[in-house]
C-alpha cells in the first residue's frame, strides 16, 4: 500500500535518504494528484531533495497545475 503519511518523505530527506523520499513523494502524488506536492514545495527541510531531477519534474508539474488553477 502507498504510504499516505505526508511527513515521511520529509523525514527521509532529513536523514539523507533522498531516493526513499522521492519514491514516497511520487507514490503520494500518483495516488492523490499533483496538488499533494504543495507540502514538499513549501517545506524548508526538503532543500536537500530539490536538486533531484524527480523533484524538479514534480515541481514543474505542480507549478503548471497551480497556474492552471489561478487562471
| Rg for CA atoms | 11 Å
Helical stretch tally = 4
Largest beta-sheet characterization = none
Strand content range: under 5%
Weakly predicted, low-confidence segments? none
Shape: globular
Strand tally, please?
0
Q: Class by helix and strand content?
A: mainly alpha
Element order, helices and strands? Answer: HHHH
- Helix percentage range: 55-70%
Overall pLDDT level: 93
Q: State the distance separating the first and last CA atoms.
A: 35 Å
Describe this structure in words.
The protein has helices spanning 8-14, 18-32, 38-42, 53-70. It has 71 residues and is an all-alpha fold. The longest helix is centred in the C-terminal third of the chain and has 18 residues, at 53-70. It is globular and about 40 Å long. The mean pLDDT is 93.
Give a topology summary.
Blueprint: H1 8-14, H2 18-32, H3 38-42, H4 53-70
What keywords describe this structure?
71 residues, globular, single chain
Question: What's this model, at a glance?
Answer:
The chain is an all-alpha fold and 71 residues long. It contains four helices and no strands.
Amino acid at each position: 500500500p502507498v504510504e499516505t503519511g505526508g511527513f515521511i518523505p520529509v523525514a527521509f530527506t532529513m536523514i539523507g535518504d533522498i531516493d526513499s523520499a522521492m519514491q514516497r513523494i511520487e507514490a503520494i502524488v500518483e495516488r492523490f494528484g499533483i496538488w499533494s506536492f504543495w507540502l514538499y514545495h513549501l517545506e524548508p527541510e526538503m532543500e536537500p531533495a530539490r536538486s533531484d531531477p524527480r523533484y524538479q519534474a514534480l515541481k514543474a508539474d505542480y507549478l503548471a497545475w497551480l497556474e492552471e488553477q489561478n487562471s
